[in-house]
Design goal:
Elements lengths: L2 H14 L3 E4 L17 E5 L2 E8 L2 H6 L3 H9 L4 E7 L5 H6 L7 H16 L3 H22 L10 H10 L5 H18 L9 H22 L3
Parallel strand pairs: 3-4
Antiparallel strand pairs: 1-2, 2-3
Length: about 220
């Protein structure tokens, strides 16, 4: 999503309602009570005045701790109103997983060890699903260690692309993980997957362990 482009579209919607709009207003454009406010839009129409905070997604909105203060102060002023807008629709997966706890490195290692036991018992499909869950957690940890924003609701496709573009995954890794991900989706959604080789699951386990080890080493002080 192009944030600036979407911000301009939002400004145009206010203009279509007869407002004069400033994008990213400077302190001198803001009313005295809001000189220190960081808002994205200032809209004026006669006696109606609006200050608007615009965030990329719900996570960015939740991270903006100053917004309740803005709302309290702005809405208390005669002729002024406070609005906020979220440009991206919420990911349904993010909504379902909000508040879920990330596994620790030791918990993730234990899970991967359990997956090995399941695989050795011959339950390839079950092992693949569990291994993919551990691999997603390892991908998030590796991305976070590299300064990226990856948490509940982060889509596997985005993580694969980020890890590939940053050189963490190579061509072969990327294509194999895509294939394993398709198998995983077929299984968990009740479809009959193509036959899965145990070596695919073993590869997934190795990759998860590598990403986890890299994320841990990146946290170590120099």
């Amino acid at each position: 999503m192009d944030f600036e482009k979407e911000l301009k579209r939002l400004a145009d919607r206010y203009r279509s309602r007869g407002f004069l709009v400033s994008i990213r207003p400077k302190p001198e454009e803001l009313p005295a009570f809001a000189k220190d406010f960081m808002v994205e839009l200032l809209a004026k129409r006669g006696a109606d005045n609006v200050l608007v905070s615009v965030k990329k997604n719900r996570q960015a909105l939740e991270d903006a701790k100053e917004l309740p203060r803005y709302a309290e102060i702005i809405n208390a002023q005669p002729g002024w109103k406070y609005d906020f807008a979220i440009l991206e629709e919420e990911n349904p997966l993010a909504r379902e997983l909000r508040g879920a706890r990330e596994p620790s490195a030791s918990e993730l290692t234990n899970t991967l060890n359990d997956v090995v036991k399941v695989l050795e018992a011959g339950h390839v499909n079950v092992a693949l699903v569990a291994a993919w869950g551990a691999a997603e957690a390892a991908m998030r940890k590796r991305l976070v260690a590299d300064g990226k924003n990856a948490n509940w609701g982060t889509q596997p496709r985005w993580m694969l692309n980020e890890l590939y573009s940053s050189g963490v995954l190579f061509d072969e890794d990327f294509h194999l993980l895509e294939s394993v991900w398709r198998h995983r989706n077929e299984i968990v959604h009740g479809f009959q997957p193509a036959p899965i080789d145990a070596e695919c699951v073993e590869y997934l386990i190795r990759t998860a362990k590598r990403l986890l080890e890299e994320s841990q080493s990146m946290k170590q002080p120099a």
